Amino acid sequence: MIGHYTVRDDKRIRVIIDTDAGCEADDPFAIAQALLTPKFIVKAICAEHFAESGSMERSANVAVHVRDLIGSDVPVMRGHDGPIGSPSEMCPPLSEAAAFIIDEALREDDHPLFVLCLGAITNVAEALRVRPDIARRMTVVWIGTQNADPEREAIREFNAGNDITAGNEVLSSGVAMWIIPLSAYSTMNVSIAELDMRVRPCGELGRWLFQQLVDYNNSDVAAWTCGDGWSLGDCPAVAVAIKPDCGRFRTVSAPIIGADTVSRFDASRPTVRLYDTVDSRFTLGDLFAKLALFAQAQQ
């Protein structure tokens, strides 16, 4: 236990973290925040691929490292090693991540199940292909997609773009789904100076989280960053699972993700929850407090 409080058992939820943690620097912060959240009964961390060869294994390795820094025994499951492909293609053997999602969804447990998807949504799509009936037994929270904005040129939204087929299959499945699109998750802004002050002093975990972000920020693959700030864009999935009303949301028809990763809406489709905003003060304040409390508990 960290801090001086507990969460009543009837308010706790089961959580599976699905993450492309080997991609860049923000996933490890969200994994740590989730593992340190008393409301969460974290059942597993599932590794996702991204747009590089061997990326799923890299994600698994980073997830293991974060887990070990916290001293957790949560299992890390390997997922599909690339985009899922069309339904007509021959499916490979079920990944251990997809198999775990199925088993946990079918488990009789009074604690609701939330799958927090911080990257491509391939593992969830794979599970739903095999057992579509689990759609009614879980809530999927996805950091992904983007809404059309006539005032801005669309960019390729990374998470949806890494497996558009999977995204559209999950969005069509009828699963309870909370979407946090680019316009919302990109508002989790923090300066690197603040991370230096508030994360780096938090023990071995804080030092590693800070340094891996600095190392990535200074690398050749991070030419897109501003240099002195960051958006911890995966943490909103944790925040809304803790407090679903910590942002403004509306019920909409499940979007169809286009080849450009822009959402298009069709009133005939299942409905989903779409967050227009997420409270960055709540999200980042919770992260920083839990890292500090964990460091205090380790002393």
Automatic annotation (TrEMBL):
Keyword list, A-Z: Glycosidase, Hydrolase
SUPFAM superfamilies referenced in this protein's UniProt entry, alphabetically: Nucleoside hydrolase
One Pfam family named in its UniProt record: IU_nuc_hydro
Superkingdom of the organism of origin: Bacteria
Domain Inosine/uridine-preferring nucleoside hydrolase: 15-252
Cellular-component GO terms for this entry: cytosol
GO-annotated molecular function: purine nucleosidase activity
UniProt-listed Gene3D superfamilies: Ribonucleoside hydrolase-like
One example of a Gene Ontology biological process annotation: purine nucleoside catabolic process
Keyword Hydrolase assigned: yes
PANTHER family given in the database record: INOSINE-URIDINE PREFERRING NUCLEOSIDE HYDROLASE, URIDINE NUCLEOSIDASE
UniProt-recorded name of the protein: Inosine-uridine preferring nucleoside hydrolase
Protein's organism: Bifidobacterium pullorum subsp. gallinarum
Upper taxonomic lineage: Bacteria, Bacillati, Actinomycetota, Actinomycetes, Bifidobacteriales
